[in-house]
Specification:
The complex is a heterodimer of chains A (113) and B (114). Chain A is mostly beta strands. Chain A is built from no helices and twelve strands. The termini of chain A are far apart. Chain B has 114 residues and is mainly beta. In chain B, 0% of the residues lie in helices and 51% in strands.
Chain lengths: 113, 114
């Protein structure tokens, strides 16, 4: 079975500060990892994904994430956040068939001026 | 290209009423999904359809039925709504080619059961 844990339900941060949103997963098989963003009253959209290869993955809007197999983590980072990054962020995991995706409980990022 | 569309956007039901949530995609995707989103619980998979004519249960299928009407449409039915089904429901489809591992989400249906 696969599962995802997002340790922080809310992260407040000031504009232009760096941020890290944490994600840990559990799985007994190879996994593929994703970060999605949800802006208020909208559906989810893909930020970035790790399938294989380089463990540092770059996504849209200046976000990046690092896959760490030994720590079973896939933390999301941005060196300098903007007000427009205020949203809820979801980490997700899937197996090789990609027929099921398991989502974490989400982290609300609140960027303050 | 509208992507994934869902109707209605909002709905209020009384306990015991039935309704169908509609979802359609115009991207020629094979796989489609229904999720529910509850505060602090993220998205949980209700049902999915790997291809036209097939459906499978997800994590929380009880109280729901689905129909994959054709390749474009995947509907979710609540036969006898309960307050515990108050939630935001998202439909998604999975891409093809370079996007075969990526899900595309609709805008959601906010359902309240009184």
């Amino acid at each position: 079975a696969q599962s995802v844990t997002q340790l922080d339900s809310q992260v407040p941060v000031f504009e232009e500060a760096p941020v890290e949103l944490r994600c840990n997963y559990s799985s007994s098989v190879s996994v593929y990892l994703f970060w999605y963003v949800q802006y208020p009253n909208q559906g989810l959209q893909l930020l970035l994904k790790y399938l294989s290869g380089s463990t540092l993955v770059k996504g849209i809007n200046g976000f990046e994430a690092e896959f760490n197999k030994s720590q079973t983590s896939f933390h999301l980072r941005k060196p300098s956040v903007h007000i427009s990054d205020t949203a809820e962020y979801f980490c997700a995991v899937s197996g090789s068939l990609f027929n099921k995706f398991y989502f974490g409980s989400g982290t609300k990022l609140n960027v303050k001026p | 290209n509208a992507g994934v569309t869902q109707t209605p956007k909002f709905q209020v039901l009384k306990t015991g009423q039935s309704m169908t949530l509609q979802c359609a995609q115009d991207m020629n995707h094979n796989s489609m999904y229904w999720y529910r989103q509850d505060p602090g619980m993220g998205l949980r998979l209700i049902y999915y359809s790997a291809s036209e004519g097939t459906t499978d249960k997800g994590e929380v299928p009880n109280g729901y039925n689905v129909s994959r009407l054709n390749k474009r449409e995947f509907s979710l039915r609540l036969e006898s709504a309960a307050p515990s089904q108050t939630s935001v429901y998202f439909c998604a489809s999975r891409g093809r080619g370079p996007s075969y591992n990526e899900q595309f989400f609709g805008p959601g249906t906010r359902l309240t059961v009184l």
